[in-house]
Every structure is written in structure tokens, then in C-alpha cells.
# Entry
Amino acid sequence: MNILILNGSPRHHGNTHAALQTMKGLLEDRNIVEVLDVCNLKLSGCCACDSCKRNGGHCVCPDESDVVIQKIVQADAVIFGTPVYWWGMSAQLKMVVDKFYSQDSQFKTMHKKIGVMVVGANELENPQYRLIHEQFRCIAEYLHWDPAFSMSFSAYEPGELMTQNGVLDQLKEACDTITNQN
# Structure
């Protein structure tokens, strides 16, 4: 299985990054796995020009979004990882998601599995987690993709998440779910 992990966190040593790297390690012995740190890419927001609808689905903005979209096209499963930024996903990951517009017709014909992993500083009862998961659920429903897992963690200080009890077991379960091995 070809799995693309999109890291939407600009903290290169933060909790989102650590959890996604752990997932990569758990998955790569039986899958092709790539982690893409979208915060390291030159991205821009969709400018609503509709050029992509006239040119075969390629964004005309001078950025690296076409590369990301092609990696998503090639993947069997996509894991989205994001910290919580003002009750939503990071702006960098949102720029990638907004560029889905360029390929939405093609994406609707592809059976993909998705996973969502969200890390925030607030307690898990805070509505910010629900809002992000609901957005990804709507995206999956619109594209006819299969949500394999959706999980949230509360951690702020770098390194904090991976020291919490049960986190590794939850990440293993998510990896098994996305690869149908549970």
C-alpha cells in the first residue's frame, strides 16, 4: 500500500511531527510510506481563477501544490496530521486541501482511505477537535473517500505527546485500521 502522510505542523520537533514519524515507522515495514512536511513547501492559497478546470487540473499559481496533489493522486491512503490553530487545521495544510479543487472530479473516482490526527493544547472536550474532524469527514464524504480513523491528542510542550500513556497503542491501532490489519 502506498501511504502519504501530510504533516501540517511547522514545529519540526513538535508533537504532531513526532506522532506522524512514529506512524511512519509503524507502517513502513509493510507499505511504501512518505511523510511530506507541507510547511517546508512553497504553497499559496487558491485564487479562484478556475484555470485548473480548463487545463487538466493543474494549478497555475507558481508554487509546489501540483507536486503535492500528484502525490495524493498516487497514494492509496492519506494521513493528515495537524496541530490546532484557532479551531482549525494549520494554514499550511489548509492551502493543500484548498488545492483539492483542481482535481476534485478525478479525486471523486479514486477510492482512497484517509486518516486524521489532530494535536492541540486544550483538553479533548474542547470543540476545536470536533470542528477539524468534521471538516475532514465532510471532505471525505464529498470525495467518496473512506475515513479510516480520526483521532485527537492533547499536548503542547515538544516531546510531551509521546510520553503519555496509551498514545503508542492508539497510533498502532490507527496504522492497522488504515491498512486493514486490525
Remarks:
- Residues 42 and 64 are 6 Å apart (CA to CA).
- DSSP finds seven helices and five strands in the chain.
- The beta strands are 2-7, 32-37, 77-83, 113-120, 146-154.
- The longest strand covers residues 146-154.
